[in-house]
Amino acid sequence: MTGRGQHEKGPVVAGKAKLVCGQILIAEGNPLLDGPGVMRHESDGAIRIENGRITAVGRAAEIDAADTERVDHGRHLILPGFVDCHMHYAQTGMIASWGKRLIDWLNSYTFPEEARFSDPAYAREVAARTIDLKLAHGTTSFATYCTSERVSVDAIFEAAQAKGMAIAAGYTAMDRNVPEALMDTPEAAYEASEALIGAWHGNGRARYAITPRFAPTSTRPQLEKLGALWAAHPNCLMQTHLSEQVDEIAWVRDLFPDSRNYLDVYDAAGLLGKGGIFGHAIHLEDGEIDRLAETGASIAHCPTSNTFIGSGLFDLVGLTARGIPVGLATDTGGGSSFSMLRTMAAAYEIAQLRGQALHPSALLWLATEGSARVMHMAEEVGTLAPGSMADLVVLNLASTDDIAQATASAHDIWEAVFPTIMMGDDRAIAQVYVAGEAV
Fold first, then answer.
1. pLDDT tens digit string along 30-80?
2. What is the pLDDT of residue 16?
3. In whole angstroms, what is the distance from residue 127 CA to residue 148 CA?
4. CA gap 207, 200 in Å, rounded
5. Which residues on neighbouring strands pair with residue 47, listed in sequence order?
6. What are phi and psi of 160, to 5 degrees?
7. What is the mean pLDDT of the segment spanning 397-411?
8. How far apart are CA 194 and CA 301, in angstroms?
């Protein structure tokens, strides 16, 4: 594993070895940088799974099938399970709520809904519902914000652990500009987060993410306390928001007049570096781009959210060319879909508006290995590499009549898969595997 530290591998799942057969795509590089040729297509492929891990992948005829249970998915396409590197599970119940701008939307919908998570029963209910929705859409790993209630963190980790999923989550620290029911203090956020790190980080497949919501809802002392916490626990992730909307940036400038720019607020507090995941990052200054590239921090691209809330057009191609790791994310409930297929389609559309045509290989990579790299979990999830956990999604490339007719005359795998990226939904998810087990 790369980044600020190393984690143990996921759990070992005992059972008979499996040979899962179908079409497969194997990433041997980053197609955003190296072109679609780094994605190898096997039309008669297979993945051998033993004890929850991938032990071999390639042409079915060349993989040892002795003493295995054969599962044949025919012409369906087998990929790594989708990885969503930025979402808010506590906003599941308010997805697709009508709103104006980010700050109005937070005050009208987000904060009242998150206040409900002081009720442990409600937190567990929404956590279980979120897990079911993610799996139904083929997402097997994700990074999520919780609320400023410790029970909200316990609830999502417990729900993911029950399904054997690898996720990252964190207590969402906020000590100003939020309703009193959600407000904490620098000391309370530090203590709650440290206790949750002890309880969950490295517990099975769980990863902890230190989580200041964003600069407007944290004072400088709180950000500095969380920076100190990250320095004490460098194996953890750190997630927050950056430069989503222009009026948000102006607000940050008013709140932190001594900072050079928005990113500098986090940098000065020790909240910038490898393992840092910055959501959105649409309206960046040149100096911010330079600093992100220098420090190895990552960006979560949230295209359905960016259009739904009217935030702007993210420069995926330009930032990737600067060497900044970028992953793909739903940002539910600011994002308007739980589906990574819909999220890929939105990323394609935003790039088109910037005059950039993303190849299907790049979209699939962003939703799998790209996001896994952002979460510093690419040795465990997001790839079909031997040794990775066998978290898989199986796509039906003819799941609806309109998709089927579009793919009927496809000349290659890209013409076959692109209609599913653009028009697919949960009906395209033929099967999901978590640690080698069908769910």
1. 999 999 999 999 999 999 999 999 999 999 999 999 999 999 999 999 999
2. 83
3. 15
4. 7
5. 20, 57
6. -70, -40
7. 97
8. 28
Torsion of Cα atoms, 355 then 361 then 362 then 363, to 10°? 90
Per residue in 75-130, pLDDT (tens digit) is 999 999 999 999 999 999 878 777 666 667 677 778 888 988 999 999 999 999 99
Task: Judge whether 83 and 140 are in contact, CB under 8 Å.
Answer: yes
Q: For residue 77, what are the β-bridge partners?
A: 23, 395
The predicted pLDDT at position 142 comes to: 98
R_g (Cα) of the chain, nearest Å: 21
The Cα–Cα gap between 46 and 229 comes to: 44
Q: What's the whole-model pTM score?
A: 0.94
Query: Which amino acid is present at 158?
Result: E
Count of all residues that appear for the chain in the document: 439
Residue keyed to tokens 């209609």: 419
Mean model confidence pLDDT for the chain: 94
Lowest pLDDT segment from 15-19, 286-290, 358-362: 15-19
Q: Is the peptide bond before 22 cis (omega within 30 degrees of 0)?
A: no
Give the chain's largest Cα–Cα span: 67
